[in-house]
Amino acid sequence: MPKSQVRKKKVYTPPTDVRPSAAAASRKPSPSWLPITGVALIIFGIAWLVVYYLSDTNYPVASWTYWNLAIGFGAMVASLAVFSRWR
Asked: How much is the pTM?
């Protein structure tokens, strides 16, 4: 039986017209207040919810009833928005 031919693999050469964008290289690092604000919002949101549940829904503001949940979870979602800007 005849032997099959061995094929040579092509050597990869990256395209010359595609280069990393200069805008990505010129981005500045995040300001120092950004992670502090994100962590503070998380702690604030968790603390608000813990106080709401442990006080049997009397505190922080009893007349807001379930809006207290919205404030606590809203603070934590806001921290996600802040952290999305972190570089």
From this structure: 0.66
